[in-house]
Amino acid sequence: MTQANADLAQLIRTIPDFPKPGIQFRDITTLLLDAKGFHASIERLAASAPDDFDLIAGIEARGFIFSSAMATQTAKGLVLIRKDGKLPGATIGVDYALEYGTDRVVMHEDACVPGQKVLLVDDLIATGGTALAAVRLLRQAGAEVVGASFVIDLPDLGGADKLRAAGVPVTTLVAFEGD
Hints:
The structure is a single chain. By secondary structure, the protein is α/β, with parallel strands linked by helices. Helices cover 30% and strands 34% of the residues. The chain has one domain (3-175): Rossmann fold (3-Layer(aba) Sandwich), CATH 3.40.50. Strand 7, helix 5 (129-140) and strand 8 form a beta-alpha-beta unit. The mean pLDDT is 95.
């Protein structure tokens, strides 16, 4: 965590043993309740965004909060990346592995056009499974993923490093060691 964002880190509550024993859940609802903190997080995410991009893609569900605020802040359109079966129009999707099984993320097939530059935004990067699936989905649509921005990084889980290895620059505001 950078010292400049220590104020934001203090607004993020840790709930031990949620959703299961041994997990330290980083709860952003306390950040969202603090108007100045929430506003600062959006300003700082926007300030760290690449200079040139066309759209913001947000990952369901908490990522929608930050991606929609970022889209407003940067005057960009918003692509919704959702779980399968949640979007009303024709979709494209990719499957990805979970600890036990698979899941699928989708977006409308006309959400972006080939060559558009997209910034991926979510609240938290942990193992990177969902974020990597979102990158694959956007690339499948022909988009260029020019970066990924997260409020929270759990660096011990390696997700940000996996995104970087996939050629996606990553920006985070705060990091919490451990999982």
